[in-house]
Every structure is written in structure tokens, then in C-alpha cells.
Amino acid sequence: MMRAKTETVAEIGAESAPDYAPTDTSYGAQAWLTRIGDIQTIWNEYNGAGVHVGVYDTGVQYTHPDLALNYDASLHITYKGVTYDGAPSASVAYGAIGPHGTNVAGLIGASADGANGVGVAFGASLTGVNIFNDGELDLNGLINGTTDGEGLVYALRQSATFDIVNNSWGSSGGFYAGNSSAMDGAGGAAKDSAWTYATEAGRDGLGTIVVKSAGNDRGDTNMNDSGAQSHSVILVGAIRVAGSKSDFGSYGANLLISAPGTAIQTTDLLGSEGYAPGDFFDQFSGTSASAPIVSGVIALMLQANPELGWRDVQDILAYSAKLTGSPVGGPPDPALNFERNAWFYTHATTLNGGGLHFSEDYGFGKLDAYAAVRMAQTWTVGQSAHHSANMATVHSNTVNPGVNYGATFDETFTLDIAEQVNIDHLTLTLDVGANMLRQIRIILTSPTGTEVELFDGVAGTANNFSTYQGPIAWNYSAQAFRGELSQGAWSVRLVDAVTNLTLTGTINALSLEIIGDLATIDQRYVYTAEYLTPGTLNDTDGGRDTLDASTIRTNSVVDLSLATASNLGGVGITLTAGHLATVITGDGADRLTGDDLDNALWGMRGDDILKGGLGSDVLNGGAGTDDLDGGLGFDTVSYEGASAGVSVSLAITGWQNTLGAGIDRLAGFESLRGSSYADVLTGNAASNRLTGDGGADRLDGAAGNDVLYGGADADDLFGGVGNDTLDGGDGDDRLNGGDGADKLYGGAGADVMTGGIGADRFDGGEGDDLLQGGLDNDYLDGGLGADVMQGGLANDVYIVDDLADQVLELADQGADIVRSSVTWTLGANTEHLELQGAGALNGTGNAMVNSLKGNAAGNRLDGLAANDSLYGEGGDDILIGGEGNDQLRGGAGADAFVVAHQFGATLETDTIFDFNVLDGDYIDLSAIDANSLLAGNQAFTKVAAFSKHAGEMALTFAPGQTLLKLDINGDGKADYQMKINGDVTGASGGWLL
Q1: CA of 673: how far to CAs of 310, 495, 619, 654, 686, in Å?
Q2: For the chain, which domains are there?
Q3: d(CA 666, CA 608)
Q4: What are 850-907's pLDDT values in tens digits?
Q5: Among candidates 597, 720, 717, 743, which has minimal Cα distance to 651?
């Protein structure tokens, strides 16, 4: 699945580059590609590479030359141990092999290979999921009862393995027990649950994008299969290539967008097996064709911005859609053939200074690939992604009217929403007698006055009703309220639509569910090429808002300081002070000026002039020759969104070729952010912040106290002179702090970190790292993994957390401390060991003078040779001084002081400072052979004074101290002695002899 930025076709915004034109032989016949926005300009940059699309259909003929290059068989569905091939196959329902899925796949992603035609996203990966194959995954098998449907539902849940799933199929007339009850009863709920799961789990939580055709029965989509009601689904209507409503396309308040669906040219089964002879079909029609065109554009959007959530994609399609057909405000135009519903503006306030346009014939309008991709590129600037995890769901009260109806009726009910949510999708649940549906119109009005017909009764669909007379609860959904606010009283009007019917029944219950985002004072105001009349943007709620004019191709001027007049593409806009934090413009030569607050100014393509002002600003000129001035404050120049790696230096005051984003002139910047590719970023003499983002970057802070962040991939970071902070991020990075007291963080990956001159602090993060200190007192923490740490000169501190860690010190390189959370033995030339954590660990010294310190648990500390200091701290510890004159402190707990080594010619004297028999302390001499003249291990004998017999232990006393002496050879002289705090007698206990 796609998350990382992928290779593009050409550089972003290379204005001199001609539009990309495929050389495929049938491309010229694909007139529909010229009617979905300026897609050739988009193809200069994006082709869908790296995006995976699942085609849930009759199978995809992946041996077809136009599909073979892009087909990905690794994502075939495996169910109950059987992997289901994605190719088309004969079935009971369809008879011969069905070409439908191959037609659909070609529209999404037929490759640009010089033969036949191309798909919208000709670089995307395609995988077929054949749900019409007479097997466990078969949709018709569920409907006719030959399968239990579990395989189909499993396959639908596997939508989560794709970035996008296209569903050019459905059922109709599913209000009640009938020919599609399996899909619209319990099966329908399972289907909706599967798609909801995909939006929750797909794309690492950003959500799989679920696209579905609206249907071809010219009926109200709110009466179609239950999938049309799901908030997870992008429901696509069909228009003629010229833009007017198709003669077959279903309509309804739950349509999101429309795309060409009449006489579309696409791939066909090879030879004579398809709809037409040959390998290409030029009469593919239906919403089955319009849905994959939208799926292809979404693939371009996700390549442009892999961080979009599934709810972002729905928003972008709605806001970027173009008016088509009859004008807003007038009646449906009979000259446009099959329009049934008029356009209207909603009471949202965030598109072109007002509401969104909507028609139940078209949804929010006609698909515009250019506008959708341009908007997608910067949609997450100024806001985070919108997905399931941050989705808000609110409900109204449930009204149970129990109203009986007769020959005529007109009833209005009020539903209240207490919470304030910015609406994405709305569902009305209405429980009435099913026979009433033959004559009912359902009209819903929002608290702000937007009136939407959710269902139009018998109009166009009377033939779908059966004689079923019982009550039914059905969900009627709407996209039309997108962008409005939920709080307040909602009006539901049920009105008799057919005067000659005299059916009777009861209105049982109704309620609302709304999903969206918890309302915030920070708003995004979108302006498109449909902004044609000068207006005012005035938001006084105190939020920090975004002006998004990313789809406008001509020159704009936006001055947040209000010193000069502003316009968007030449159309005037009056701004008010203080509320706009972010401004994004499009492909024109734009002039953007900030105010005294913190601003983000994004010029995108074109030769732009951006000036930040007084705050801490972020300026991104995009492609082109840009003149950027951060002004006062701590300002950032950003190259996010560049189509290739950039090479930029803050030390250059004139024009410089950035390589990946045109020729820029920079002034007044302290911070520099790179692209998703391999960048070379250089600071200046000031204290800079350099951020590499994706790609294998090289960052050089130069002078000053700099902060460097490499981001993803293998980066080279050099701090230079000054007290710098270096963070490699993900990847196998190389970090060099240079001169100064630096902080180095490796992040994930196997990193090589060098401190240089100065007291440096290292954190290796994850991976097997190499940490190299320098001339001063360094702090080295390898983090997770098997790390190698070299402190160098001076007194260093090492943090050890893995038995495979290595601490390397040379002679005369200072007095060093190892702090370990695992059992540890000091290596050569390290002096001090401190055990950490809560575990019962062992600590062992070396031949040097060591200090060993335990933790709060029971530790075993062994000093080995030399004059060591052992500190048991908490817990029941075992302290072994070893050779040399050792100092022992047990700390809290019942501690054992063990003497276990062979004595030499030089008398050794150990000292115990806190011996206490009452705490359970004891002295263990049992490992020593008390009599060296006899074989075996003899025990000591307590005596008042030596009598020249081997194996004697004598105690002498002085104020506050007891001296223990051992004679193992019988010469009457002490071979070993121990000083013990307090008066300890042979009879007081605490001895193992």
C-alpha cells in the first residue's frame, strides 16, 4: 500500500514543458479524457505510480497488453486457504466470460505503452477481485442462496489491503423482501460493515477509498442497494461526455460527484470474447464507467499527497467539482435531455465565499481532475488528515409519532442535534409501512435552511415496488449538507406525492445520524476558478484560518497586511485583518504578503513573490523562479511538494538554482525544510533549523547553534561549529556534531554518530548503532539494538540496555561510567558500573579500580581485582570484593558479603560499612579453604587469638569497629582481614564459615 511519495513523470510546474500526451494508438479516440479537467498537465507530474487499486468486478484480464504492465497479482484474495485468481471466468449468472471488469480496469489504469488507449492513472497498480465467479466470493451466489455470503464479506473486508477499491456494481429496489434482499438485509449490513472496516484499517489508518457506481435505473439512489447509503462510499453518477445528465444514471441526495459514463472508450477482452471484436471497446456506458474514472483521479490525488485521509478525498472531490448542465438557481433544462433536479447552493460558507453547489442529478458537480489533484497536493497544509480515528458522530433524538396516514397527508417532524459538527455525511432513519413508500416524498431541512429531497416516492421507480405491506426502517443518506453545521432543529417533512393512491399505514419512528468533524474556529476557505464576482472574506470568531486558492491558474495577489488590494485570479477579494494564518495559491505568478502574526504562504507553481512579515513564517514558493523574503521573526523556507531533490543554502543571498524547484532568491530565513527526495541543505552563520523530510539528505548546519532533522531514509548530518542538535530520523544515518556541545539522536536504523570536539550527548535510538565521542565528557546511550560505543578522551557516561552492546575505551581516556539495565561486566579501561531498572542484575568489574553500584533489586556485584567500591543499594545483594582492598556497602535488604578468592602474599583489607545482622546481613567465607595445608575445603574455627594453627578466624575490637582476621597457613599471622562496622562477635550470627 502507498504511503511514501513515489517517482513522478516530470518536475512539478515546469511551465515550459508541454502537456504530457500518451502515444497510444487509440488515445485520440478517448474524448472523455479531455472532458475531466486538464489531465495532461497533471500527467506532467503524476500518473498514479505507487497507488494500488482493487477492481471488485467480473475479473480483470491481466494478460491484456494494456493491463499486464500494471497488474499486481500479489494482492489476490485468499479465503479458506484458496487464492482466488483475479481473471474473468464464466459463471451461472453471466454465462460466458464477462468483459465488464476488464473494461473498468482499463479506465482506471491501462498503461501508456503505445498501444490501444490509456487509463486515467496509467502508472497505478491494479488487482482484480472476481466477485461474479460462482465461488465462495460470488455476489450472485449470496443473492440466490448458493453461498452463505461469508466469502464475499471477507473479500470486501480485504478492501483494506488496497489504497482504492472500485465497485461498478450494485442492486436496486432493495427496500424490502425482494430479489435483492440478501444484499440489502443482513447481507447489506455486513457489506457496509466491511467497507467501514476498510476506511478504518486501510492505508495505515488513513483509510481505503471506496468508490461505487450510483446505478443505471434512472431511480432515486436512496432506494438502491444499501451500499449507496454508506458514509464510507463515494457514490458516482454518470454524465454524457459533453457534461449533461445521462439518460440512465440514477440520481439522489447521496451522490457525491459525476463523471463521463456514455460511450466511453476502454480496454476489452482480447479477440472476440469482449463486447466488441478487437481489444478495445468504444461504447462502454453506465455508472460502471463513471466510477472507475473517479477512481483513477483519486489515484493521482494519492500520489500527489499520500497523507490524505479517506474523508479528505471526499471533501476534495466535492470542493473541486465543476458546475455542469443547467445554471444554478433555474429549473432543470429540458434541452439538456435528462435533468430532473435543479441546482442549488447550500448554506455552507467555505467555497468561493458561500455554499457549495449541489444537484441530485450531479452531486456536487462534474469531476475536474486538474482541480482535484491541485487541491490534494496542499490539502494537509494548515490541517491534519481527516480519517475514521478523528471522525465525530452525533445523533438526534428519536421521534416516535405513531401517526396514521390515509389518502393524503403532509406531516412535519422536528429532530434536534445538540452537538456542533462540521458535516460530512448525514443519514435519516425512517420507519414506515412499506406500502407508504409508493407515495411519499421525504424532504429534510437543515437548521440554516438548506432543503434537500431525500426521496421522491414513486417518481421514476414505481416498478420497483412489490406488494409487501409491512413496516420497514430504511436509511436515507445525503452528501448535500457537507460543510454545514449540525447543531439545531432539523425539519423532516413527509408529504403525499401521488394523489390517486389511497394506501394507509403508520409513521413509526425517525432519527438522524451525522458524521464529520467537531466544529472548530479554524476554517478552510476554498476558492476555485468559479470565483467570478468580487467578495469579502470576513471571519471574526478568533480562529486562524486557511485561504485555499490552489486550483486557480492565473495570477493572484494576497496581502494579509492589507497594505495593498488582494485578488484571486484577477477577481477582487476584501480581506479582514488577523484571521488568516495560511494562504495557498496555484499555478500563476502570485504575490503573497504576510502580516504581523505567524503565516504560512504557499505560492506553488509560477514565478512568485512571497514576503513573510513580522511573525515566524513558513514560505513555500513551489516550482518556478521565486523571490522569497521571510522578514522578521524565525522564518522557514520550505520545499515540501517539490518533484525532485533540492540543493539550497541559506548562506547564499543572491539567486540560486535549487535544482528541484526552480531558481529562487532567499532572504531573512533561519529555517530550511527540504523535499521528499534527496536534498542538500546548508545553513548560515546564524542558529538554523534544517529539516530533510524524505530522501537521503545531506544537512550542514555551518556555524551557529543549529537543529538538524534528517527524516526518512539514510541521511548525512553535520552540525558544524556551535552547540547543535542532530536527529537522523528513520534510516541508516551518519551524524557528526562538529565543534561544540552537541546532542545527537540516531532514530531508527543503524546509525554512525560522531560527536567531535565538545561535551556531546548521544541517543542511538533503534537499530545497531556506532557512537563515537571525542575530546570531552560525553554521554552515550545506544538505545535499542546491539550498539558499539566509544567515548574517547575525558570522563564519559555509557547507557547499556542490550547484552550485545559494546563499550570501548582505550587506556588513559578518563574515568568512565557504565549505567546498565542488563547484567554487565566492565570491559577494559572502564571504571564505574551502575545497574539500573527493576531487574535482579549482576555487575562485574575488571582489573582496574572499580566502583559497582546495584539497583533496588537483589544484585550480585563482583569487583574482581584491584581496590574496588561496591554499593548494593536496595534488595538482598551479594557483594564480592575480590582481590584488593575493597570497600563494601550493602544498603537496604539482607546482604551477603562474600570472600571467595585466593589470598596472595600482600595482606588485603576489605571494609564493610553497614553490616547489620538484624537486617539479615551475613559474611560468607565458605568458598575459602580455611586450611591450605589439607586437601579439600575446610571451614574456619573461631578463636580469641591465633595459636599458629591453620584455619583460624579471630576477631578484635576497637570503638565502633570489628577487625576480622584469617590465618590459612598456621603461621599465626593474618593472611586476610576485614574491617566491619560495629561490634560483631562470633556468637552474634551472620557467618558462613
Answers
A1: 27, 59, 10, 19, 16
A2: 30-325+358-374 (3.40.50.200), 393-518 (2.60.120.260), 908-992 (no CATH)
A3: 12
A4: 999 999 999 999 999 999 999 999 999 999 999 999 999 999 999 999 998 889 889 9
A5: 720
Question: Where do we find the cell 513555500?
Answer: 620
Give me the sign of the Cα torsion angle 525, 528, 532, 534: positive
Of residues 182 and 253, which shows the higher confidence score? Answer: 253
Which pairing describes strands 471-478 and 357-358: parallel, antiparallel, or unpaired?
Answer: unpaired
Residue where the block lists cell 447509503: 229
- In contact, 819 and 798? CB cutoff 8 Å: yes
Cα dihedral angle (432, 434, 439, 445), rounded to 10 degrees?
40
pTM equals: 0.85
Please tell me the distance from the alpha carbon of residue 454 to that of residue 375, in angstroms, as a whole number: 29
Question: Could you count the other beta carbons within 10 Å of the beta carbon of residue 208?
Answer: 26
d(CA 950, CA 448): 104
- Residue 463 pLDDT class (50, 70, 90 cuts): very low
Alpha carbons within 13 A on the beta-carbon side of 3:
11
Q: What percent of the chain has pLDDT over 70?
A: 90
The C-alpha atoms of residue 650 and residue 682 are separated, in whole angstroms, by 6
**Strand pairing report for 869-871 and 887-889:** parallel
| Distance from C-alpha of 493 to C-alpha of 401, rounded to nearest angstrom | 13
Residue 164 C-alpha cell reads as 482504492
* Average pLDDT of every residue of the chain: 90
Specify the 3-state DSSP secondary structure of 181.
Answer: helix
The answer to whether the CB of 453 falls within 8 A of the CB of 253 is yes
How high is the pLDDT of residue 136? Answer: 81
- Exposed / middle / buried, residue 843 (Cβ in 10 Å: 0-12, 13-18, 19+): buried
The single residue listed with the C-alpha cell 455525511 is 425
**Average pLDDT, stretch 127-146?**
77
Q: Please, are residues 166 and 291 in contact by the beta-carbon 8 Å criterion?
A: yes
Nearest to 959 by CA among 988, 980, 982, 977: 982
Q: What are the grid coordinates assigned to 652, written together?
A: 547564499
CA distance 952 to 948: 8
Q: What is the DSSP string of 524-561?
A: EEE--TT--S-EEE---SS--EEEE-TT--S--EEETT
User: Tell me, what's the pLDDT at 292?
Assistant: 98
Tell me, letter by letter, the H, E, C secondary structure of 422-472: EEEEEEEEEEEEHHHHHCEEEEEECCCCCEEEEECCCCCCHHHCCCCCCEE
Strands (E), 590-704: 591-593, 600-602, 609-611, 618-620, 626-629, 636-638, 647-649, 655-657, 663-667, 671-673, 680-682, 689-691, 698-700
Given this model, what pLDDT does residue 95 score? Answer: 60
What amino acid occupies position 364? F
Q: Cα 929 from chain centroid?
A: 67
Is 915:990 a contact under the CB 8 Å cutoff? yes
Positive or negative CA dihedral for 569, 303, 227, 517?
A: negative
Asked whether the beta carbons of 480 and 257 are under 8 A apart, the reply is: no
- The residue assigned the cell 471522525 is 391
End-to-end CA distance of the chain: 69
Sheet with strand 566-568: strands edge to edge? 535-537, 571-575, 566-568, 557-559, 591-593, 609-611, 626-629, 663-667, 655-657
Beta bridge partner(s), residue 392: 516
Rounded Cα–Cα distance for residues 270 and 194 (Å)? 33
pLDDT in tens, 547-565: 999 999 999 999 999 999 9
Residues 6+ apart with CB under 8 A from 812: none
Please list, in sequence order, all residues whose beta carbon lies within 8 angstroms of the beta carbon of residue 28, skipping any fewer than 6 positions away.
none
The reported pLDDT for the residue numbered 518 is 96
